[in-house]
Fold this sequence. Notes:
mainly alpha
Amino acid sequence: MPALVGYLNLFRLDESKGGKKAMGTLILILRMWVMDFQQPKFKIEDNPAAEATSRLTRILTFLHLPVVNLWLLLCPVNLSYDWTLGSVPLVTDIGDPRNVWTGLFYSGLLALIWRSARSLISQVRL
């Protein structure tokens, strides 16, 4: 893909609106061609949280996934090329101990947003 963009840059197609539209259309058609003009077919194993029957399980699991990703960013011990097939177990109830980390993560995120907003408001008032 970068080679294609570099090739199109030789003709300066990216400097105008028409060129950007043409390049975007070309890349879209190329992607559709690679996929044989069909939608992807996903299995339950590809994203078990999305296929969970309980709404609570889906919500708790999707809230927990950013915590897992933050932990992987800070401590990349359990890296995997494929996170399917239940690599991250579903969070099925409120009593799951992983919810403590999820709560701490979102509390810290809200505190950071609150402090940033207060700082911005105080700078505007000056």
